Amino acid sequence: MTDINQFSPGLSVLEISYVLASVLFIVGLKMLSHPLTARRGNFMAAIGMGLAIVATILFHEKDGERIGNIGLIIAAIVVGTAIGWVIAKKVKMTAMPQLVSFFNGMGGAAAALISLMEFPHVSSELISRSGMANGYVLAILLGLIIGTVSWAGSMIAYGKLDGWIGDLRVKAMKYVNLAILALLAGSVVFIMTRDVQASSELTPFIYIIFAVAVVYGVLFVMPIGGADMPVVISLLNSFTGVAAAMGGFLYNNQAMLTGGILVGSAGTILTILMCKAMNRSLLNVIVGVFGGGGAALNAEAGTVKEISMSDAAVLMSYSKKVVIVPGYGLAVAQAQHICHELDKLLEEKGVEVKYAIHPVAGRMPGHMNVLLAEADVPYEQLVESDEINPDLPNTDVLVVIGANDVVNPAAEDDPSSPIYGMPIIKARDAKNVIVMKRGMGKGYAAIENMLFFNPKTRMLFGDAKSTLQNLVSEVKSL
Fold first, then answer.
1. Helical segments of 375-420, H only
2. CB contact at 8 A, 416 and 450
3. How far apart are CA 194 and CA 208, in angstroms?
């Protein structure tokens, strides 16, 4: 029978703290599913992480010894908190995809560093029992590879989203990436089948694996461009979660394990949903061969017709049903508040107003929902594209504000288009279409949008915010 005196009070408190932290992670993740509770969910998950960190510092023991270098740990926490706080406060909503990539990359780098530090110290007792073929070594190697790929890939994704890294498309890239994956898998098998006396003997191979994983992370993301970028960001996020879970296995840390599993599973589910929304194969995402290159066929595009501000105001004010399709242009102009003012004015005139939200509107899943929630747009007005499409033939006016690819008919009409097969908002089904754009520039996928030449479409050129402000003034004057 186990003697109760064997148990350390500190250890019990630590385990309880990890359980509480895990519960807060789960509850916080659940609350993130709705814009009205997302802020509180994020806060609760942050409390859980803070609890896990404090409990680890105060109560963690190894071989009866507490954690050392407390001063350095606290200093690192303070510096990291300050940097993260400043970045988060200064970042614009339009740069949120870049921020997600950057922070996600930092998580992958942390997981890779854990593996690099832990491998040389694999216990000789463990090696003597099973050689290198054991779960502990496997967790280190997987954490190293997945974390490194996530870090390198996220940094490339950040640069591409920010516009200072271009695309690199080579036909043989698929086979190069598959060859590198095979090399990484072979390296894992090689290390785990070695019969050595100490893990330090194989340490040089660990750094070789790290270097190869960096190369794969770079080559994996470099070909990706256009409308496909949200998919790879989601996939890299799931990689970071899996790498963090490997760290949880290494340290027997339930909070780290739970957090990693939640991030990994949520990221994987989101990736699958994103692939469906973008009509992409998950296998193609993994080997990095898809991308938004090329252009849709544009023979005899047609004539663009414009509409005046006063005519647009009259058309919308005397409609029964108006649908607004917000896009990246609205986010760039920070026009969500004035857009909400317009929809309130229309509703006062008896017009039913809804927002059609594509899964990747604003270039990131949920980005547009958060942007509109910031402007206090009621969540009930936000309707997913697959739900609103059947009702568009009964819509008097559909207003596209800074969106492009998500309303592009090429996804249905042009097999040569890189977005062919992607589910879209079927804007052309509405009775009238008004498109607000700065000019005739192409969208994120760099292809022509034939909606602009549709006989039912009228263009209203200008910055989204100033155009909406003028439109609000016109509606008020009616």
1. 385-388, 410-413
2. no
3. 16
* pLDDT more than 90, % of the chain: 46
| pLDDT at residue 109 tops 60 | yes
Alpha carbon of residue 118 to chain centroid: 29
Phi, psi torsion values for 301, nearest 5 degrees: -60, -40
Strands 61-62 and 65-66: antiparallel
Give the integer Cα–Cα distance in Å for 475 and 471: 6
- Between CA 50 and CA 43 the distance in angstroms is 10
Which residues, at least 6 apart from 157, have a Cβ–Cβ distance to it below 8 Å?
A: 101, 221, 224, 229, 232, 233, 236
Query: 121-135, 176-190, 285-299, 415-429: lowest mean pLDDT where?
Result: 285-299
Kindly indicate the confidence band of residue 2, based on its pLDDT and cuts at 50, 70 and 90: very low
Distance CA 335, CA 333 (A): 5
**3-state SS of 164-217?**
CCCCCCCCCHHHHHHHHHHHHHHHHHHHHCCCCCCHHHHHHHHHHHHHHHHHHH
Residue range 269-302, pLDDT digits in tens: 888 877 776 666 777 666 555 444 444 444 455 6
How far is the C-alpha of 31 from the C-alpha of 395, rounded, in Å? 33
Strand partners, 434: 399, 458
Domain residue ranges of the chain, discontinuous segments joined by +: 1-90, 94-293, 309-477
Structure pTM?
0.80
State the greatest distance between any 2 C-alpha atoms of the chain, in Å, as a whole number: 86
With CA atoms as reference, report the closest residue to 151 among 187, 186, 110, 185.
110
Residue with tokens 């100033």: 466
The predicted-structure confidence for 15-68, as pLDDT tens digits, reads as follows 899 999 999 999 999 888 777 788 899 999 999 999 999 999 988 887 778 888
Contact 423, 385 (CB under 8 A): yes
Architecture of the domain spanning 309-477: 3-Layer(aba) Sandwich (3.40)
Sheet containing 382-384: give its strands across. 382-384, 352-357, 321-326, 397-401, 433-437, 457-461
Catalytic machinery residues: 405
445, 419 contact by CB (below 8 A):
yes
> Which of 221, 46, 197 lies closest to 148 in space, CA to CA?
221
Q: How is residue 94 written in tokens? A: 């339009």
* Assigned token pair, 45: 């998950």
The residues that bridge with 84 in the sheet, in sequence order, are none
